[in-house]
Amino acid sequence: MTKRGKALAGFALAAVLLNLVPTLVEATDSPGFYITFMFTAFFWISQAVSWNILTGYSGYFSFGQGAWFGIGVYTTGILAVKHEWPFLLALPVAGILAGVAGLVLGMVVFRLRKLGGEIFALTTLAVAFVLASVARLYSFIDGGRGIFMTSTPLPEFLGDFRTAMFRMTFVVAFLTLLAAYLIFESRIGWGLFAIRDDEQVAHGLGVPVFRYKMLALGTNAFFSGLMGGVWALQIGFVTVDDVFNIRVPLFVILMSVLGGMKHWMGPAVGAVIIYTLTDRLNSAGLEDVNQIIIGGLLIVLVLAVREGIYLRLRARWKLALATFLAALSVWTLADLGSSVIWDFAYASLLTVGVTLIPTRARRRTEVRSEGPPVAVDEEASTDRGPG
Amino acid sequence: MNEVLNQAIVSGLLIGGLYAVMSVGISLTWGALKIINLAHFSFILLGAYATYQVSNSLEIDPLLALLFVLPAGFLAGVILQIFFEFAKVDEFQSLIISFGLFIILQSITRTLWTADFRRIDGANNPYESMSFFIGDIAVQVAPLLAFAAATGIAIGMHLLLTRSYFGKAVRAIVDDPEIARAYGIDVRRVAVILSGLATSFSAAAGVFIASYQSLTPNMSLGWFGIVFPVVILGGLGNAVGALGAGVIVGVAAGIATTQWGPLSAPLVTFLIMIAALLFRPQGLFTRQGSA
Amino acid sequence: MIRSARRNLQIGALLLVMALVAAACGGDDSGSDTTAAPTSTTAGNGGTTATTAPPATTTTADPSAGEPIVVGGSLALTGFLAPTAAIHKVAGDLFVERLNAAGGLLGRQVEWDVRDDESVPDQAGALYERLISEEGVDLILGPYGTGTITAAMAVAEREGFVFPHHTASLTYAYTYACHFPTWPVGLHTNISNPNIVYDALVASGNPPETIAFVLNEFPGTQLIGYGPPGSDAGGAISEAEKRGWDVVAEINFPTGTSDWAPIAAQLAAADPDFIYMGALGVDGVGLLTALDAIGYAPRGHFYQWPAPGPMLGAPNAEGAFSVATFEPHAPFTDDPEAASIVAAFDEAASAAGLPYTAFETQASVSWAAWEVLIAGVEGAGSLEHDAICDYLVNNPIETILGTVDFDPAQQNYYGDLSVVKQIQNGEWIVVHPAATAKPGTSPQL
Fold first, then answer.
1. Of the four listed, B110, C7, C270, C288, which is most buried by Cβ atoms within 10 Å?
2. Is C252's CB within 8 Å of A10's CB?
3. Residue to substitute from A33, A246, A289, interface C, most C β-carbons within 10 A
4. C residues 82-121 near B, CB within 8 Å?
C-alpha cells in the first residue's frame, strides 16, 4: 500500500471508531456531556485546521475566521429557520456561501501584489466587521432580532440532538482534516509552503501562486462556514454580537500557534489541548483565576514550544504515548478524576509537560563540533518545510 | 438638518482625537518594533480605571491622574519590551503573548473593580459633559482635551523622529535592525524607550475615556473595532497619520449616523478601511515605501 | 516521509483505542448518572470526589439525607453581560445562605454550583449539559441574559429538567412546558409594557404630544419597540401612535455604542416632549451626557433596562422613568421579610464590592426565580422534575414580586407585573400604579 493509501486507511479506521462513541457512551450509561465535549472539540478542530490551511501553509495571516464562521451560522439560520429548508439541505449551502465569499475576497485582495503580511490580516478583520454591520442592518439577515434555532427539526436518522450534533460535527471535522492532509501532502501544499517562504521565488519557480492561494482561502472559508452552519444549532439563539466577535478568530490563532502551524495535524492538537484546558478550568469553578491561568499558560507555552506542540509530541512520540497511556491508566483505575474528561485532561497535560522537558538535542546554543553540520533540533526537522 | 450635520462633524473631529490617542501606541510598536501588542487595550483600560480610582479616592480632578498614569504606563511599556526582547519573539508570537497578557490584565481588572459599571463621581469630575459653544456648535471638552493630546503626540513624535538622534535611530531600526546595530545603535534601549512612550500614550487615552464614559472591563473588546481601522488608515508607526485617521473615522461615523442611522456607521468605517487597505495599504498619511 | 505518515496513523489509532477503553471503564467506575433522580452527587472538582453512594440500581426516595441538594447553573460572570450578572450572583448566594440557615430544602442543605458562561450562549448550553449529565446536579436555575437562557432552556428541555429563569426578554419564543419565567412582563410584553409606562405619563396630568424613540438594536428592546419579528402586533412605537402622539424620531443604534454625540444632535434637533429609550446598561447615561454637552436637557425621558446606579449620577437624570418590579421602599418593604432581604442584600452587595447595593428589579427577579424553584420542590415533596413541573403549573406561587400563577395557555406567562419608577430627588422610586407607588408620590412630567 502506498503511503497515501495507509494514511487514508488510518482516516477510515478513525472514522469508524469515532462513530461508535455515542453508542458506547450510552451503552455504558456515561454522562451525555462526554458527547458534547467531543463534538465541541470537533468544532474547534475544524475551525483551527481550516484556518491553518490558509495561514499556516501559505503564510497569509488571516484575522477573518469570524467572517466565514458567521456566514455559515447565519446561512443555516436564515435558510433552515426563516425559510424552513430542511437542515441538511441548508448546511452545504452554508459552506458554499462562505467559500464563495472567501474566493471573492481572494479575487480582490490577491490581485494586489502589495498586499502581504499584516495588511492582508487587517483586511480579513475588516471583512468580518463589515459582515457584522451588514447583518445588523438588514432584517432579512438579522436586523437586531436574532434567530431562534431551538426548534429546528433534524432528520431522524441522525438520532437525538446530541448524537446528531456529534455526527454532523464529526463529518465536518473529518472532512476538514482530510482536506488539510491531502493538500499538505500534495503539490499544492508544497507550493503553498513555497509561497510562505518567498512568494516571488515561488512564482519564479512556476508555482501558480494565485490559484493556490485561492484554493487555500476557499477551503479555509468553506470548512469554517460549514462547521458554523452546524454550530448554529448549539448556539441556540443566534445574534450578531454572539457570532461576529473576536472569540473564534482569536482562538483559532492560539490553537494553531500552540499546536504548530507547519503541519496539518498541529492545529487539531492545539485545539484539543486549549479546549480541554478551558473546559476543565471552568468545570473546576475557578472563574476568577480561570482567565489568568489560560493567559499565563498561553504565554508560557508559546515561549516554550516554538514549533508547536504537535511536532514536539511527534518527535518524542514514544515518550508521549507512554506518558499518556500511563497517566490515563493511573487516573482511571485509581479513580482520581471524577470523570473521564478529567482523566483525559490530566493525562494530556502531563504528556505535554513531559515532552517539554529539554533534552540535549534541544539546547539552542549547541553546535556539533564533529561531523557535517546538522540542524540542532534534529528530531523535529522531519516536519514540513524549513525551520 | 444642516445644524445636526455640522454638530456631528465637529463632534466627530473631536472624538477622532480620542481615537488617535487610543491607537497611536499600538501603531508605534507595530510599525517600528514589529510587535502586535494587544495588551495596549489593557493599558488603556487600566489607565481609565486608575483614573477612576485616583479621582474618586483622592477626590481630585481626573486629569491630574495623568501625573501618575503616564509614568506608570511608561514603565509598563519598558518592562514589556524588555520581556519581548529577552524572549526573541516574532510577530505571530508577540500577538499570542500579548493576548495572553491582555486576558490576564482584563481578569485582574475585573477582580479589582468587579464587572459592574463604574463612573467617576460628578462631584470630582467637571469634564463629564463640559462644553462651550462656538456659535450654535457645541464643543465637548473631554474629547477636545484628547484631541489636543493627540495633536501634541503627533507633533512631538514627528519632531522626535525627524529631528533627533533618537528618531534617526528608530528609523534605522525600522529599516534594518541588524545594520542599525552594526552602526552602533543600542537597538534594545531604543526599542524599550519607544515601547514605554507608546504605552504611556495608551494609558493617557484611558484617562480621557474615564473623564466622561462609564467603565466596565469588557469595554476594551469594543475598542478593537475602532483602533484597527485608525491604525491602518494612519499607517503603521505614523503618529501624525493616527491623528488624521482618527479624525476621518470619527467624522465619517458621525456623518453616517446622522445621514443613514447609527447602524450604518460601523459599516462605513470598515468600508473606508478596506478601501484604504486595497488602494493605499501603507496608510493615507504615509509616503509610499516609508515607515 | 513514509515513516512519519505511519507514525501518525499509529499514534492516532492507539490514542483513539485507549480513549475508548478509558471511556468504557470510566462509565462504570465514576458512578455518575444521567437520570434526574439523585443517587450521588459529585461536585466536579478536579481530582476529588465527594463520598459517593454505591452505584445505584434502584432509585430511592431518600437516598442520602445528609447530602446537599445541588442546584446547578451558569451566569455571565465575564463578558459583555457581566455588569448585571454580578447582581444575580450576590442575590443567589444570599438566597441560598438564608435558605440553609432556615433549615434548607426537604431537610437538606442546598449548594449552588454556578459557573461562568462568559456571556456566550453555546458555552452556556454546554455548561448546563455538563452540570446535568457529568456532574449530576439535582436542580438547575437559569443564567442571565436572553441568549444564554435560550441555549440553557434547550438543554433543560432535552433533559427534562424544570427550568426557572429570570431575565429572558423574548417572551413569545419560549414554549417549553416546564420553563418558569420570573421576568414578569407577560407574554405580550411589547404591548403591555409600553402601555404601563404611557399610563403613568397620562397619570402625571401632562402627557407628551411628541415622542422620540431611541432603541438599542438588542433583540429584547427591539421586541418592545416593534413587536415580534414577522408579526404586525406592533410595540411601543405603534402604541404611542395609537394614543395620538407624534413620533418625531426613530433611531436604532448598535449595542455597545460609546459615541453618542451624533445621536444626541439628532435628538436635540427633533426636540421631542418625551424620549423613549430602549436602553441597556449605561446607554442612558451616555446619551444624557452627550445631550448635556450640547446644552440640551430632555423634558421627559424613559429608559427600558438601565443600570440603576449609574443613571442616578447622569446629568439631568432627574425625572427619568423606567420600569421595575421592586424598589427598596414602601409599600414593597412593608412586608418585614422583604425588608430584611433588602437589608441583607445591601450588606452582601457591599461586601462583594458592587458600587450600587440596592435590592431592586434585577435582584428581585433573581430572588423570585429561586423562590419558584424552592416552592416547586417543596410542593412536589421531591426532586422529581415531572412532579415539580406539575406542581408549579397548577399552583400559584408566592414570591417577592407578588403572587405568580404560571398559565400554560400563555406559555407559562401570567400578565405584566411591571410598575413604573422615576428618579425623584436623586432616588429611584416607584410612582405608578398608585397602589404600588411610594406613599405620597406620583409621576412627574
1. C288
2. no
3. A33
4. 82-87
| Spatial CA neighbour of B139 closest among B280, B14, B291, B3 | B14
Contacts of B108 in chain C (CB under 8 A): none
Measured CA to CA, the distance from residue C68 to residue C51 in angstroms comes to 12
Is A241 within 8 Å of C255 when comparing Cβ atoms?
A: yes
Residues in chain A within 8 Å Cβ distance of B236 = 118
CATH of the domain at B60: 1.10.3470
CA-based nearest residue in chain A for residue B31: A118
Q: How many domains does chain B have?
A: 1
Non-local CB neighbours of A125 within 8 Å, separated by 6+ positions: A63, A64, A249, B228
Between chains, do B119 and C253 touch, taking CB under 8 Å as contact? no
CATH fold of C65-184+333-414 reads Rossmann fold (3.40.50)
pLDDT in tens, A108-157: 888 876 656 677 887 888 888 889 889 988 888 888 889 999 888 898 88
C1 touches chain A (CB under 8 A): yes
Residue A148 forms beta bridges with which residues? A237
Other beta carbons within 10 angstroms of residue C295's beta carbon come to 13
Residue B217 counted as domain residue: yes
Q: Which of C57, C34, C83 shows the shortest CA–CA distance to C280?
A: C83
pTM recorded for the entire structure: 0.86
In this structure, is residue B70 part of a structural domain? yes
Q: How far apart are CA C373 and CA B230, in angstroms?
A: 51
Domain enclosing residue B67, as ranges: 2-279
Mind listing the pLDDT tens digit for each residue in B96-139? 889 889 989 998 999 899 888 899 988 888 888 899 999 889 99
Contacts of A250 in chain B (CB under 8 A): 99
- Report long-range pairs for C235-238 (Cβ below 8 Å, ≥24 apart): C235/C190, C235/C191, C235/C194, C236/C190, C236/C193, C236/C194, C236/C276, C236/C278, C237/C213
Main-chain dihedrals φ then ψ at residue C388, nearest 5 degrees? -65, -45
Q: Do domains C65-184+333-414 and C189-324+418-436 have the same CATH topology?
A: yes
Contact criterion met (CB below 8 Å) for C313 and B122: yes
Tens digit of each residue's pLDDT (9 = 90 or more) over A16-61: 877 788 888 777 878 888 899 999 999 999 999 999 999 999 988 8
DSSP string, C342-405: HHHHHHHHHHTT-S-----HHHHHHHHHHHHHHHHHHHHTSS-HHHHHHHHHHS-EEETTEEE-
Name the fold adopted by C189-324+418-436: Rossmann fold (3.40.50)
Kindly state whether residue B289 falls inside one of the protein's structural domains: no
Chains that touch B (3 or more CB pairs under 8 A): A, C
Q: Neighbouring chains of A at 3+ CB pairs within 8 Å?
A: B, C
**Chain A positions in Cβ-Cβ contact with residue B87 (cut-off 8 Å):** 303
Contacts of C254 in chain B (CB under 8 A): 262-263, 265-266
Cβ–Cβ contact B134 with C under 8 A: no
Cα-flanking dihedrals φ and ψ of residue C407, to 5°?
-110, 105
Cell numbers at residue A355, please? 515532552
Where does residue C20 rank: exposed (0-12), middle (13-18), buried (19+ CB within 10 A)?
A: middle
Beta carbons within 10 angstroms of residue C130's beta carbon? 27
Residue B212: partners with Cβ closer than 8 Å, 6 or more residues away: B127, B128, B129, B140, B142, B143, C289
Domain limits, chain C:
65-184+333-414, 189-324+418-436
Q: What values do phi and psi take at C138, rounded to 5?
A: -85, -40
Q: Indicate yes or no: CB of A7 within 8 angstroms of CB of C13.
A: no
In a domain, B88, yes or no: yes
